[in-house]
Specification:
Structural class: mainly alpha
Number of strands: 0
Radius of gyration: 20 Å
Helix content: over 70%
Strand content: under 5%
Shape: rod-shaped
Order of helices and strands: HH
Oligomer: single chain
Number of helices: 2
Largest sheet: none
């Protein structure tokens, strides 16, 4: 805040917001693939569509990146107006 640099806030936002959300999304995709494998192993069983297999990872990566951008922009906007004071 005192130096006027905004880049640390983008990095902090990436590690505290985006990284955990992306990691959680990809881990959940891996776990769901493991859990659904016994059901989709049979020819008569349900199948996962190709569209779902392509869109799910994409959406689960884009949402955290949008959240990270929103958080970082609002943090910089808030801190731009911050003034130290004696409380």
């Amino acid at each position: 805040i005192l130096t006027g640099r905004r880049t640390p806030f983008w990095g902090i936002g990436a590690w505290t917001v985006a990284a955990p959300m992306v990691l959680g999304a990809w881990v959940s995709l891996g776990v769901s693939r493991i859990l659904i494998a016994p059901m989709t192993a049979f020819p008569e069983g349900p199948t996962l569509s190709g569209t779902l297999q392509i869109l799910a990872p994409g959406v689960l990566t884009v949402i955290p990146l949008l959240t990270w951008g929103y958080v970082s922009v609002n943090t910089v906007r808030y801190l731009r107006d911050w003034k130290p004071r004696n409380t």
